[in-house]
Amino acid sequence: MADPRGFLKVRQRETQPRRPVPVRIMDWKEVYEAQDKGVLKSQAGRCMDCGVPFCHQGCPLGNLIPEWNDLTWRGKGEEAIERLHATNNFPEWTGRLCPAPCEASCVLGINQPAVTIKQVEVSIIDEAFENGWVQPLPPTRLSGKTVAVVGSGPAGLAVAQQLTRVGHTVAVYERDDKIGGLLRYGIPDFKMEKEQVDRRIEQMKAEGTRFRTGVNVGTDVTWEQLRRRYDAVVIATGATVPRDLPIPGRGLEGIHYAMDYLVPANRVVAGETVENQIDARGKHVVILGGGDTGADCLGTAHRHGAASVTTLAIGKQPPLERAAHQPWPTFPTLFEVASAHEEGGERTYLASTVEFIGEDGKLTGVKVAETEFVDGKRLPKAGTEHVIPADLVFLSLGFTGAEPAGITEQVHAEFDGRGNVARDGYYMTNTEGVFVAGDAGRGQSLIVWAIAEGRACAAAVDKHLMGSTILPAPVAPTDRAISVL
Ligand SMILES: Cc1cc2nc3c(=O)[nH]c(=O)nc-3n(C[C@H](O)[C@H](O)[C@H](O)COP(=O)(O)OP(=O)(O)OC[C@H]3O[C@@H](n4cnc5c(N)ncnc54)[C@H](O)[C@@H]3O)c2cc1C
Ligand code: SF4
């Protein structure tokens, strides 16, 4: 156990410091600064090594949190990364980007601030990379079986790494020019710099995973061709269809889906030249939707020098503390202050957008009414309409599911009623040998779920190919069951 009296001696959480706002909005680098090692140890020492560690239940990966808290407190970084990698292929991504459901279920959180689990996680993996403890783990023998993984986000990469390590020959197909999925071109560098993706790709290449970029499956090569060429195919194409807002004025110039803004912005940060990039400099920007995507647009617009940025959310402002109906250890909906929110901008709640206003075909404003709740429905309240000036609107209203991309016609895999690729309890679609993992099957979710599903799907594929498997399966497609196999 970490310090037996740690939680009594250190009663406050101390997380990683963030760079000063005026400095960090001048660049695209990560907003975080390294945490003092002494502070990190004393924070890890707050862990009580609970008999029933609810943090395990909170984490979809089943991370062995008390073990690596203890090892961090004892300064045993090499052992800590071994325990962390036992359940998580890519802790440098979750350690930076996860909303940390583990912390919401930490037992210490009942009457004190929870252990800074995510902070300990990222420190372990950063130290491991610095010290050369992250090495390729190639298989000792090959199985002779081949697998095509389509999509190179966290789900596809987790599937590929797990299957490569047990000896299958795995090729990852990606339609973009670079590997990484939303980590590459969706999530901005100020949340996670791309070096974090690049060095994992190098590790995976050294282990034997093959990467085929610039291949749009369904068009450049058909799903049926992959199905014939490989022993198994995994659909890990994400949930990329954006939700629209078909209200009057939608056709005006200046209204864009969030990803049409974020992807080119990320490419430019990566040093590429992008034609007709949406530029927010000097503009009044309105973001519709208050989630992660909206926050990423907010931080990007500030770095582009927007004159003002307003985020509109249709619902109520979430509470600062747990609501009574979301008691510990559930994951509560709370008012979140992400790094982008610290950097400025207005956040307005109970705001229903009813019309886009424009002149000569160009957007000039957004007509908004107060939201009222009628029979459980969110409706604009008559007589409360007002116009917010806007030159640019970014729609970050979520995603409605996976792109069909020939999946149904070419391999006859069906979609469910929620726009996701349907699968059974073993991640298999209704077509034998074709599996689905991550957002493509679950709907837009979180990186931690994508990795957990990727690991579990790999176990299902391995069992399908070999009859048995030693790979762990942390989650079932439909729930949080410990094992599906
Ligand atoms: C802007 C934004 C910010 C986010 N921020 C966070 C965050 O901070 N923390 C968090 O936990 N989650 C966040 N998320 C959610 C998270 O990124 C996703 O849940 C996660 O990336 C899903 O992983 P995936 O592998 O299933 O799919 P994706 O990451 O979407 O990857 C799918 C890949 O498949 C490729 N592809 C699709 N179709 C084809 C085809 N036909 N042929 C070849 N390739 C194809 C795509 O190009 C893409 O690279 C965010 C999401 C968005 C949109
Ligand atoms: S629930 Fe919190 S205090 Fe208990 S073992 Fe997990 S991290 Fe430590």
Automatic annotation (TrEMBL):
Ranges where the Dihydroprymidine dehydrogenase domain occurs: 25-132
A GO MF term: metal ion binding
Pfam families, per the entry: Fer4_20 (PF14691), Pyr_redox_2 (PF07992)
FAD/NAD(P)-binding domain ranges (all copies): 146-454
Pathway(s) the chain acts in: Amino-acid biosynthesis
Keyword Amino-acid biosynthesis: yes
UniProt entry keywords in alphabetical sequence: Amino-acid biosynthesis, Glutamate biosynthesis, Iron, Iron-sulfur, Metal-binding, Oxidoreductase
A GO BP entry: glutamate biosynthetic process
Protein's name in the database: Glutamate synthase (NADH) small subunit
